[in-house]
Amino acid sequence: MASPRDGLEAEETEESASRRGSSGVEVVFPSDPAVSAPLCPHGPTLLFVKVSQGKEETRRFYACSACRDRKDCNFFQWEDEKLSEARLAARETHNRRCQPPLSRRQCVERYLKFIELPLSQRKFCQRCQQLLLPDEWGRHREHQVMGDISITQLRRPSQLLYPLENKKANAQYLFADRSCQFLVDLLSTLGFRRVLCVGTPRLHELIMLTASGDKKSNIKSLLLDIDFRYSQFYMEDSFCHYNMFNHHFFDGKAALEVCRAFLQEDEGEGVIMVTDPPFGGLVEPLAVTFKKLIAMWKEGQSQDNSHKELPIFWIFPYFFESRICQFFPSFCMLDYQVDYDNHALYKHGKTGRKQSPVRIFTNVPRNKIILPTEEGYRFCPLCQRYVSLENQHCEHCNSCTSKDGRKWNHCFLCKKCVKPSWIHCSICSRCALPGHSCEGPKDGCFICGELDHKRSTCPNIATSKRANRAVRKQKQRKSNKMKMETTKGQSMNHTSVTRKKKRRERAHQYLCS
Ligand code: SAH
Ligand code: ZN
Ligand code: ZN
Ligand code: ZN
Ligand code: ZN
């Protein structure tokens, strides 16, 4: 095996850039769990510390776990701040007011009423992102409303709803059909009977569709997602309104129990968790959450199974490999490139500009996972796993070392394989881009992760801007069609006040270098 540090410096830098976020903020987990964090509308807040030039400032503060942008959730409290009774009461009122207008139960009742309606009366308000019952039509008369909502459409909510495009909170990047189908087929081939979908609404719906169409592969699925709009389409046992950055169930204990029962069914046999978190999110709080879900699954195990792990697919960019493996040492990264529908950069083939940097991290043994040869993967008999066609086996590293799907070159001085664009620098004693400034800024570029320049001088910035412009144009066209603003109190899309300006923001700063 190659050393685990193989070729990862640039990626670590890229990742540390994203961890800091543009505001230079890191999350801290207090050593004393008895100190409970104050609550925002999205559940317990996280404790953050500002970091400037590698140094932590001493004063720490609580902020929203889900919304990285103050405009979406403006919760702020210094760690040592004492709040008056009045302010605490006001906060509680605010938190309550921000909760969805309907309970889970009420949503289910609405859905049941809705599917009883004749086709001609089944309407969906695109502006409010809401299924309408006849007595509500009047209120949406001025809105763009779709009619004749078929059962097929109801079963594909990810196609009915527009993807949320908020950069820092719940950016939604939906799987391209072939990636989604690949995942469903893989899960079924691996023999899983239950899938806990954490932030994967499109996968959830495809599993449900496949199950209803084919009684043989009756895989069950439970979706946990912060996007409340999905609660209109699912029963209580297949959707929970959930925040994956703090393991918060918005509908309290009842929802937690749904999740627990799902994980613990059949003594926990046959279940897998699949997650595709927003990439702008922080890895550590996600890892903490996933460990809580793992613990929940473990509680349902009989004693002799205690060495077993909950199978997990964590879908995330390849340059987070070291970070993810730090929290989950048993995880491996697969070469499979996950493609997205609404991401101009990460789409496959002609329309997509680049190869997708998004991979699957998993504790399912790699030799059990067959990647499609027709999509450009091959089996490496030496590594005993499927790899990208261009990922060549390096006899010195004794492994297929490429992380990004291109052919990497072995450097005898570094004793490892490096990106094809790198050359060995005798001053830095390591490989780097030609033309880098030796011992240059350690933090690297936020856009491409290279060490020799900052974001403002990144050679990729033009392409990144161009791509963004293309996406923006496409969006504007769409948004001109349906001007959506959040209507207080009755709207389903309360989780994200999708301001027009926001929509123009891009969710991924990452580009492959
Ligand atoms: N590729 C997936 C979607 C991934 S996009 C698919 O096609 O199914 C990220 C998903 O995570 C979105 O559905 C978004 O609503 C959800 N999400 C974002 N922030 C979240 C949070 N704090 N808690 C739970 N889910 C969140
Ligand atoms: Zn919040
Ligand atoms: Zn409306
Ligand atoms: Zn090598
Ligand atoms: Zn080198």
From TrEMBL:
It is found in: Cytoplasm; Nucleus, Nucleolus. Pfam families: N6-adenineMlase, Zn_ribbon_GRF. Residues 1-25, 467-513 are annotated as: Disordered. InterPro entries: DNA_methylase_N6_adenine_CS, Mlase_EEF1AKMT1/ZCCHC4, ZCCHC4, Znf_GRF. Residues 467-481, 497-506 have a biased composition (Basic residues). One of its GO terms (biological process) is positive regulation of translation. Residues 40-82 form the GRF-type domain. Keywords: Cytoplasm, Metal-binding, Methyltransferase, Nucleus, S-adenosyl-L-methionine, Transferase, Zinc, Zinc-finger. Its main location: cytoplasm. The keyword Zinc-finger applies. Residues 487-496 have a biased composition (Polar residues). It comes from the Eukaryota. One of its GO terms (cellular component) is cytoplasm. One of its GO terms (molecular function) is zinc ion binding. rRNA N6-methyltransferase that specifically methylates the adenine in position 4220 of 28S rRNA. N6-methylation of adenine(4220) in 28S rRNA is required for translation. PANTHER family: RRNA N6-ADENOSINE-METHYLTRANSFERASE ZCCHC4 (PTHR13493:SF3), ZINC FINGER CCHC DOMAIN-CONTAINING (PTHR13493). Belongs to the ZCCHC4 family. This is rRNA N(6)-adenosine-methyltransferase ZCCHC4. It comes from Prolemur simus (Greater bamboo lemur). The lineage of its organism: Eukaryota, Metazoa, Chordata, Craniata, Vertebrata.
